[in-house]
């Protein structure tokens, strides 16, 4: 699963930086390009919850393969887009079904014990981040060739087809994923106990039987089940976790929203330096994902404390950046912010799954992605308003939002500490 996640973001990051240039070369105005980009975000916002819930009903294999193949179709159509209309059509299957990483995370949460989940999720995020670092470099090289954008899009579609083959080859029988693979590939982590293995076999067998039954249900029954599960999430007491996720997402997006422009206005550095600094932060984020094992052991696997401390550190570092008097303070804040944000992202997902229950992991991850999508829609608006007052306005507003998230976590401390008793109402 780590290899498909690496290839997924590697392929996507080859294409995405070139898309604005391509659509403008087709004759689209800035407004049309912005509308198409926004439509993609809106489709992701509404589809992530439904697709995640659908993966709980029909099973991870069927849903993951469907999403990979339909995403490949979208990037293939992108490679044939010679008009703005075809370009817009190519974004529809990707906007609806590009939730491959979320379903992969749900599958990982099915396969590993709750104790090992932050470590495995951290390594999964690190693998995908490496792809995101290397992809733009390869895409930039390919676009220099004749018809470079089309070649890059076809290569991205081919990578998704390769991923579909890899996912198809995974050992899906209930005897293999939890036992044999874990014994072969888990030398660096704590081994499963006998009880955890027995629980895993029982859960795999149960989920496999449910998925087989669900595949033969009519589409209307599947839709009704999806809506029922989403209603269960809406009526649950998980609102505070999703609110914390939204606030922290917007805070971090505000930090990066005018990063290059603010550095040029405040310290006179060129945008190229800001690009190098962001790449440096991404590389450190990969390292942070690999260090989650020692961190969770240091905190005795208390995800709530890790999230609280990482969010507090994130808030402090954004404040340091907003009040920085020299570029060295910016470099210092960026260095540690890469660690705190990576740890925080992994821990908020783990807390969602711990409190909500693994039985609805796809739905929970889908709702979490929708919450993050809301943040991506809201953050540019807030950033534009805040920049009217000062170049430091967006990060300063981010500090306030992060502080509210920390206060919410402190107010619900008892709930997080007794997460074993908290489940969705429909369970």
UniProtKB/TrEMBL annotation:
Keywords: Membrane, Transmembrane, Transmembrane helix, Transport. The keyword Transit peptide does not apply. GO terms for cellular component: membrane. Pfam families: MFS_1 (PF07690). Residues 1-417 form the Major facilitator superfamily (MFS) profile domain. Its main location: membrane. One of its GO terms (molecular function) is transmembrane transporter activity. It is a multi-pass membrane protein. It is found in: Membrane. The chain crosses the membrane at residues 35-57, 63-89, 149-170, 238-257, 277-296, 317-339. Belongs to the major facilitator superfamily. PANTHER family: MAJOR FACILITATOR SUPERFAMILY DOMAIN-CONTAINING PROTEIN 10, MAJOR FACILITATOR SUPERFAMILY DOMAIN-CONTAINING PROTEIN 9. This is MFSD9 protein.
């Amino acid at each position: 699963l780590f290899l498909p996640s690496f290839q997924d973001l590697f392929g996507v990051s080859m294409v995405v930086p070139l898309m604005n240039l391509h659509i403008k070369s087709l004759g689209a105005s800035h407004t049309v390009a912005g509308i198409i980009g926004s439509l993609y975000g809106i489709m992701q916002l509404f589809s992530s919850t439904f697709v995640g819930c659908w993966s709980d009903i029909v099973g991870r294999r069927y849903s993951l393969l469907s999403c990979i193949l339909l995403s490949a179709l979208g990037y293939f159509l992108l490679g044939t887009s010679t008009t703005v209309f075809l370009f817009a059509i190519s974004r529809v299957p990707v906007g609806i079904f590009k939730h491959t990483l979320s379903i992969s995370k749900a599958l990982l949460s099915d396969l590993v014990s709750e104790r090992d989940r932050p470590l495995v999720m951290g390594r999964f995020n690190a693998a995908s981040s490496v792809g995101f670092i290397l992809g733009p470099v390869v895409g930039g090289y390919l676009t220099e060739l004749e018809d470079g954008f089309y070649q890059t899009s076809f290569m991205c579609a081919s990578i998704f087809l390769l991923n579909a083959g890899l996912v198809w080859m995974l050992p899906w029988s209930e005897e293999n994923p939890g036992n044999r693979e874990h014994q072969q590939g888990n030398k660096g982590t704590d081994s499963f106990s006998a009880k955890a293995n027995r629980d895993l076999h029982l859960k795999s067998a149960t989920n496999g039987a449910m998925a087989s039954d669900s595949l033969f249900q009519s589409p209307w029954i599947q839709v009704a089940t999806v809506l029922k599960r989403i209603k269960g999430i809406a009526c649950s007491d998980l609102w505070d976790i999703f609110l914390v996720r939204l606030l922290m997402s917007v805070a971090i997006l505000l930090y990066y929203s005018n990063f290059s422009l603010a550095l040029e206005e405040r310290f006179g550095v060129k945008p190229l330096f800001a690009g190098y600094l962001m790449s440096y932060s991404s590389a450190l984020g990969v390292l942070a994902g690999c260090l989650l094992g020692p961190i969770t052991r240091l905190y005795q696997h208390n995800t709530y404390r890790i999230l609280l401390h990482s969010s507090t550190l994130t808030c402090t570092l954004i404040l340091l950046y907003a009040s920085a008097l020299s570029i060295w303070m910016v470099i210092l804040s960026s260095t540690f912010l890469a660690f705190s944000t990576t740890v925080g992202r992994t821990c908020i997902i783990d807390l969602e799954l711990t409190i909500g229950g693994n039985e609805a992991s796809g739905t929970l991850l889908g709702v979490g992605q929708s919450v993050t999508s809301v943040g991506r829609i809201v953050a540019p608006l807030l950033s534009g308003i805040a920049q009217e007052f000062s170049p430091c306005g967006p990060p300063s507003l981010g500090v306030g939002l992060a502080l509210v998230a920390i206060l919410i976590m402190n107010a619900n401390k008892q709930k997080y500490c007794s997460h074993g008793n908290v489940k969705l109402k429909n369970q």
